[in-house]
Write a structure and sequence with these properties.
Layout lengths: L8 E6 L2 E6 L6 H30 L5 H21 L7 H10 L4 H23 L3 H18 L8
Antiparallel strand pairs: 1-2
Length: about 160
């Protein structure tokens, strides 16, 4: 964000993640896409770096406990980066979709976001039997639906 002229940048963390905030920032759509992609891509790069490091050199030098901990970090980093790029608002992929479609197409953004959230939730549940992330995706779909029904698009959301 500072690359685009923002001087006061803060990170806000909450129960389901966080976001970067800057006062008075005016990004072009392309800049917003780059800002939204920066986090997941950096996370994936760190995960891939450690993955290749583990595979090529560190495995023999680590205790089993340290290896498992590092491998867990790699898996979480890669999976979460991929999931964060799903085009579901407010995930980073949803932010990219919103910037790509533009402010005048917020209803389309919300509609796509809801549909993708439901489809991906079903796929994750059916493929892996996991329930946590599908519940989170359904929650996001409901929030997108509420925003669509209550005219959030007219308030610059």
């Amino acid at each position: 964000m500072r690359q685009f002229g923002c001087r006061h940048v803060s990170i806000v963390l909450h129960g389901f993640g966080g976001y970067a905030l800057s006062q008075g920032a005016r990004f072009t759509r392309g800049q917003q896409i780059l800002v939204s992609l920066a986090g997941p891509l950096l996370q994936a790069a760190c995960g891939l770096f450690l993955f290749f490091l583990l595979r090529e050199s560190l495995r023999g030098d680590m205790s089993e406990w340290a290896y498992r901990l590092t491998r867990s970090f790699v898996e979480i980093s890669l999976y979460w980066a991929i999931l964060n790029l799903i085009p579901v608002f407010p995930l980073d992929g949803g932010q990219v979709l919103k910037a790509f479609l533009g402010p005048r197409r917020i209803q389309l953004t919300l509609g796509i976001s809801m549909s993708v959230a439901i489809v991906v939730a079903c796929l994750i549940y059916l493929r892996w039997g996991s329930i946590l992330f599908p519940i989170l995706l359904v929650y996001m779909a409901v929030e997108n639906y509420k925003a669509l029904k209550h005219g959030e698009s007219s308030r610059g959301w």
